[in-house]
Predict the structure.
Amino acid sequence: MERLEKFAGDNGLLVAFVFVGLVMALAFFLSRHVGRGRVHGSAIAIALALVLAGVAGADTGGKNGVADYPLLAGIGVLGGNMFRDFAIVATAFGVRLSDLRAAGLVGALSIPIGVALSFLVGALVALGFGLTDPAEITTIGAGAATYIVGPVTGASLGVSSRIISLSIAAGLVKAVLVMVATPLVARRIGLDNPVSAMVYGGLMGTTSGVTGGLAATDPKLVPYGAMTSTFYTGLGCLLCPSVFYLVVKALV
Amino acid sequence: MPILGVALLAACTLVGLFAGDLLGAALGLEANVGGVGIAMLLLILLSNLPGRRLGPDSAAGVSFWSLMYIPIIVAMAAKQNVLAAVSGGVMAAVAGTLAVLAAFALVPVLSRWSRRP
């Protein structure tokens, strides 16, 4: 066993690829056969990972979820800041400046409006639950934007892992709810054409939620929503730890 | 060559993160300010230079990592201190739900604006 742990530790990143692959395979199986495609596999995978992290935390008493098991230490590398930032930047690829211009002023404006709206709602909820530290309030507000903006903001402001987890949980609640609720409210909010899909993508921002929700509503609308929502996380990562944090700091 | 795309992506990420670091220091924050966002804009600008589009092989190097984004987020979720978050789980649920409801409510408003000439 000791030998195996050392071996797994030396090949940590490979172990992490296998672990995440298995979690995602299980999640997509559950999505297809149990959820009948209602909830996107990615959302289930993230929820499963959070559950595993919670179970591991209760078992090991550590702060790093499953990465506290010596066998799975590589998860800490794959899920660490370097790979996270690298992959997020990669998602910006393929966005064309000409497409961006074609989205029109309202399509573009919907992104900062969406980020600010979610941030405001999240920050007010954080205040309502009695948080007083501006960095923590900002992180929860950022988490209400997406589950990426929350941890990126939290990490750059140096808040505790507990607050970062909360911000991810807020973003995850949002992503799952967007996927499930979009087909139900699509007709009522006029989500049946490219323009409203772009506006919707910009306001919601959570790319997995938006693409999952639009796929369940009308697959033709997916690229329009994805186009605006692609910018949301980047803009949120730019605004939340800087401008929004300074505003919160000045007000609290 | 796929490595060219990976190298471009890594270079943009490094430059963006370092710029974010410097920006944070300039603002007097011990924080990286918008490094990821700067890196994304940089990648968009560089991969859209007129007449200098990445070839399909090089582009594959970048696309691969953009497809790895969800798995990496899954790994990140698996190493979070979830147990500590459960005690405040109501706050996360309320924040996430209200953010979605507010955004749903604004979709028809903004869509109507865009239809005005």
